[in-house]
Amino acid sequence: MTGAVRGSDGAEDRRQCPPPGLTPMGLLGGQLTVVDCCLALATGALTLLVSAVVALYLWPLRRRELRGAPAHPLDFAAATGVAETIMAAEAVDPLVRPESRSRLLSHGSRTGRAVLLLHGYTHAPDQYDELAKEFFDRGYNVWIPRAPHHGTVDRRAHHRVEAGDLTAYAAEALTVAAGLGEEVGVVGISGGAVLAAWLAQVRGDVVRRLLLLSPFFRPDPRQAPAFAVKPLTVLYGRRLLPDRVTSRGYSLSAVTQYLMIARNLPVPPRRTGLLSAAVAISPLDGVVDPAAAVGVPGGIARANGITLGVCTLPESLGVRHDVLALAALGVDGSELRRRYVALYEEEPAPAPTTAAAG
């Protein structure tokens, strides 16, 4: 509404009446200006941004479907049948690369020891060819299953992995391995190590030994600072942002699925029947957070009253994230593989009690 006021010279002075709720003094004690409007908008935008950041930090990442559940045990014949069915399906699937199919190394009967080998993100069962032979030659039955969307002719298929599919795959694989031997353990590398730790906690009724190679519980701080990990996990793990692919060929939407599983590990760690736990890492690894790589399994070991075995590879070997890529090392590579098996088999000394430590 506009009112007309005549000044002392008789000229008409037309002024805009203030809108309801706004006094003539404006927002800051003066007339409302363009600067005031911009400041108000900026303040509102900042408030929304802060609220969004807070919401990302408070967004729950714990998911019911990742908690796991005991499975019906299989005898040797049934476990072998499941493995052979999986391998037969992959053999006739034109989308699965022949060299990337699941592998079963069996002595033909249930053995005293069986081991499950879980390969890393972007890799396939052939990543374990040499280490699997080391275990087999020591009398183990060995099961190396192919992870969902991995080892296919579509080299970008692994971008589509989901946390729930990965844990379901790991749980099924453990059920097969449990039918192959009396004592069962799990070895995992990188993302596969996250799944191995998850199995050791949610299927503690089965897993007795645990070896983690370059475990990816958190990214190297040089790749993503600690404060950014959870927001990135929410935004990319929930696929709220369009996917991005790093220079290493890693899909952020896929990588954060493993981080989500890591976030769903029991806190505090559970006491289970674990007999040994170990980790192998390289100081040249630029992918994983070294503190988390040792700290997370260290907590699991302490909860089970055992001491974590730690193998830090010499820098002189030049091995980086993939601590199974040892072909170029010759004798040193063979020695490292034997060291990994020894770490897996070793019965660590009992962890010191609080009183003893003091």
What does this molecule look like?
Residues 113-245 form the Serine aminopeptidase S33 domain. This is Serine aminopeptidase S33 domain-containing protein. One of its GO terms (cellular component) is membrane. Keywords: Membrane, Transmembrane, Transmembrane helix. This protein has 358 residues and is an alpha/beta fold. The chain has two domains: 27-58; 68-351, Alpha/Beta hydrolase fold, catalytic domain (Rossmann fold, 3-Layer(aba) Sandwich), CATH 3.40.50. Helices cover 38% and strands 14% of the residues. The chain is built from ten helices and nine strands. The chain has helices at residues 34-58, 76-91, 129-137, 163-178, 191-202, 226-237, 252-263, 290-303, 331-345, 354-357; strands spanning 2-6, 12-16, 103-105, 111-118, 141-144, 181-189, 207-213, 276-281, 309-312. Helix 4 (163-178) crosses helix 5 (191-202), helix 5 (191-202) runs parallel beside helix 7 (252-263) and helix 6 (226-237) crosses helix 7. It starts with a strand and ends with a helix. Mean pLDDT is 85; it is low at 1-32, 48-52 and 353-358.
